[in-house]
Specification:
The chain is an all-alpha fold. Helix content is 75%, strand content 0%. α1 (3-37) runs antiparallel to α3 and α1 (3-37) crosses α4 (90-99). The longest helix is centred in the N-terminal third of the chain and has 35 residues, at 3-37. The N and C termini lie far apart (47 Å).
Length: 131
């Protein structure tokens, strides 16, 4: 496979990663608004259980101090593309800038845990239901 193909796969991976983050964050916002507006989809059991599982996965990673599999995959693909550091495409560069910040790990674990607590409280206070 060519270096350009690996770079494209790395960009696709970071796009998938950004989509996961959007699902977790946007999903909770949608659930909270749906609760206020009585939207039926906001109580969909498959969506709600998937959403809860997604944030619990993130929290578990943070508590265990392990890197996200998508981050590991993206880094490996960038290496295979001959890229290092910030030698990314436009999409890769900006998605990485949005997704990754430099801070001590305990800060991320605290933020993820707090957000996860919000998701759990929402799950209990506004439980999923079949329509």
């Amino acid at each position: 496979m060519s270096a350009q193909a690996y770079a494209w796969l790395a960009d696709a991976t970071v796009t998938l990663h950004a989509s996961f983050v959007l699902f977790v964050m946007g999903g909770e916002i949608g659930i909270l608004i749906g609760w206020l507006r009585n939207w039926r989809w906001a109580r969909n059991p498959l969506f709600r259980i998937s959403h809860l599982a997604a944030i619990l996965f993130v929290i578990l990673e943070a508590w265990l101090g392990v890197n996200c599999p998508l981050t590991i995959l993206e880094n490996r693909l960038r290496e295979m593309a001959g890229q290092a550091g910030y030698e990314l495409s436009f999409i890769g560069y900006w998605l990485n800038r949005i997704l990754f910040y430099s801070a001590p790990e305990w800060i991320f674990a605290s933020i993820y845990s707090g957000f996860g607590l919000l998701v759990v409280v929402t799950f209990i206070a506004y439980p999923p239901r079949r329509n």
